[in-house]
Amino acid sequence: MAEAAAPLDCLVIGAGPAGLTAATYLTRFHRRSLVVDAGRSRARWIPKSHNCPGFPFGVAGTELLDKLRSQAQGYGAEIVSGCIAKLERDAVTGVFTAIAEDGTRWEATCVILATGIVDKMPAMPGLEEAIANNVVRMCAVCDAYEASDDHIAVYAPVDEAIRHAVFLRTFSRSVAAVRSEPGEPDPELAALAREAKVAVLPVAKSLEHDGRCCVFKLEDDSAHRFDTVYPVLGGDGQSKLGAALGATVDGNGEIETDDRQQTSVDGLYAIGDVVTGLNQISVAVGHAAVAATAIHNRLPRNFREDPEAQPETAAELPSP
Ligand SMILES: Cc1cc2nc3c(=O)[nH]c(=O)nc-3n(C[C@H](O)[C@H](O)[C@H](O)COP(=O)(O)OP(=O)(O)OC[C@H]3O[C@@H](n4cnc5c(N)ncnc54)[C@H](O)[C@@H]3O)c2cc1C
């Protein structure tokens, strides 16, 4: 009977900036790893990132993903398409089994979840084109600099809209908070909006764009044009594989880890946007470096053998 293949040292789930960087590190540590990816990285939405270290003239999200993938594959990383539907952990051996939607299974000593989040997007005709043209932006930390002095709106439930609008006042004198749903602001936030000169507008009935700016029609039938709209409608942390194993998840559906990126489940690590904290490319690749190094250091040592060495005695020969 054929012997079952030994478990991988590490299975990486997700090939965004986090998972691809982890693959580069693990392969360069001469570890047996594999990446499985469903192909929906948030980074693919980025028209051009200007805060990604090492790209002084900016980099498109798709170009960055291609470069990170080439770098990992250049060292021999194996990356396959697929969506992991279930993750199990043997209570005795601690070995993980991941099962893809098509039934393919992999066993691994450690697993890295690099599954990201999925943004809740506004209902808007031509949303992809609006993001590509930078009239809708998804991340103020990432790109508010590029929107400096624009006429900006934040579209969100009112308290969230005010918090983000006040943050954006660093970049523009003209920032409004547009309600995505009915509701009155917390009195302290209402005072903050007045102090910061942020206009708090009624609930939007519709949001459209013409490629150069966005137009909200509000419930009072007024129309308002903005150069840039930031929707802040939340996101779904892709944490369910970890949560099913008992990993601690915060109120946003993001996974909590220790300072080596290990979750509350032994051998299960989480990196990138799926982890509690700032959702940024530089954070995702930093998490990846920390997790991959911690995993390498916990695995049995993989000392390099001398490829020229011959067994000295018959006793050292492998049995047939
Ligand atoms: C419009 C926009 C602009 C942005 N601009 C910037 C910027 O300028 N600078 C910056 O730092 N950040 C920016 N970001 C944020 C940045 O894209 C994310 O921080 C980054 O992509 C996170 O990387 P990640 O690897 O954690 O997750 P992702 O890149 O989201 O990758 C997760 C991967 O896991 C896969 N996956 C999920 N579940 C499974 C499963 N069960 N099985 C297999 N695969 C799975 C997904 O399909 C996806 O491919 C922007 C985001 C958006 C939307």
TrEMBL record:
Key words, A-Z: Flavoprotein, Oxidoreductase
Protein name, per record: Pyridine nucleotide-disulfide oxidoreductase
Biological source species: Noviluteimonas caseinilytica
Residues forming coiled coils: none
Disordered: region residues: 301-320
Gene3D superfamilies per UniProt: FAD/NAD(P)-binding domain
Top-rank lineage group of the source organism: Bacteria
Domain FAD/NAD(P)-binding: residue ranges: 9-288
